[in-house]
Amino acid sequence: MIVLDEAQALPVELLQPTLLALQELVDEYGCSIVLCSATQPAIEQRRNFPIGLRRPRHIVENPEALHAALRRTRVEQAGVLRDPELTVALASEYQVLCIVNTRRHARELYESLGGGEAVFHLSTRMCAQHRTSSLAEIRARLTAGLACRVVSTQLIEAGVDIDFPVVFRASCGLDSLVQAAGRCNREGRLDIGRVVWFDSEHLPPCGHLRNSMETAKELITPETDVLSPRTIAAYFDHYYWRRQGQWDGQRVLECLSANPAKLKYQFRTMNDRYRIVREAGVSVVVPWTAEGKKLADSLHSDYPPDAKTWRRLQRYVVSVHDHEQRALDAAGAIVECHGVWVLLREDCYGPYTGIDTEDLGAGCLLPTKETII
């Protein structure tokens, strides 16, 4: 059995080779394929989607009836909310989660809310240990019935178990909207939770996020039951159809010979082209908290860390773009140790928003083995 969790996340440009391989495993090797998702993608074979899987079936019968029986949220289409209006709307809620599409927007919105013990920020600009600590504090406040306002990027949609009475979600595709709704009234304590879907003045980045948003806008009307399985199926049907020229966008299938008997297969090229995650970024170890500082300082030794230390260091890593790494290096904010970069400047890592590469002034160096101040 092969299980694909979050099946809706399959990149469109890899759909055809992926589905071809899965169908081959079913037909020739007796495999069973289980596609797990809150938003089941429409990847069955049909007239306008000939590359789809043949004869899939639902594990649960009558998903429409199940959707109606388990409804916990109501989606409100709020139209355009500019940042000042959005800030006022969030500040008026006692407990609220707002999910936006970029890390910069998340930080700016967090700052507009004024910080304080009831306001939180979550993004991949924070190391994993930092996010874990913030989430623990958020859950504690929610459980205690205290004020709690959180601004996050879409990272919180990836299986984070958290429950808010109100969730705001900036312009996005229906797959992301359903994931956001999964953070609203998750435990069913309310009769119905509020999911506010709004148009932000900050558009999603180009690529999947922008394309999925545009597809949703083409299909959804004020009367649409946005979260129903029928709507989700129509959304994916339209999303795949309007991008049919990209089903093998990475040209993986070009590596297969038209005549199998000749065994001319370019396996190395195929391996290089089939990449679900294409932008890995550059890892920077950040000295967050005493534990992080101790681990970061250990990298300045003449001897490389052991395997246990490397595993612990993973909790204190932030991924940055190549150009950000170059800017940090030019500003003397990072140093390379044993093949990884280590953050030196205290002003480049905020206690609430994580690493910041925008204002690389003189700054203050953290004490290390080489730089004692």
Written account of the structure:
There is one protein chain. The protein has 373 residues and is an alpha/beta fold. Helices cover 33% and strands 17% of the residues. The chain has helices at 15-29, 63-69, 83-91, 103-112, 128-144, 174-181, 208-219, 229-241, 267-273, 289-298, 307-313, 322-330, and strands at 2-5, 33-36, 73-80, 95-99, 119-122, 148-152, 166-170, 193-199, 282-285, 317-320, 334-337, 340-343, 349-350, 354-355. Strands 3-8-7-4-6-5 form a six-stranded parallel β-sheet. Strands 10-9-12-11 form a four-stranded mixed β-sheet. Helix 6 links the parallel strand 7 (166-170) and strand 8.
pLDDT < 50 runs, ≥5 residues: 362-373
Shape: globular
Query: What structural class do the secondary elements suggest?
Result: alpha/beta
Mean pLDDT: 89
Helices and strands, in N-to-C order?
A: EHEHEHEHEHEEHEHHHEHHEHEEEE
How many strands appear in the DSSP assignment?
14
> How much helical structure, as a percent, in the residues?
25-40%
Record the strand order, biggest sheet. Answer: 3-8-7-4-6-5
The Rg value, from CA coordinates, equals 23 Å
Distance between the termini: 58 Å
Strand content: 15-25%
* Biggest sheet features: 6 strands, parallel
Number of helices, counting only DSSP H or I runs of 4 residues or more: 12
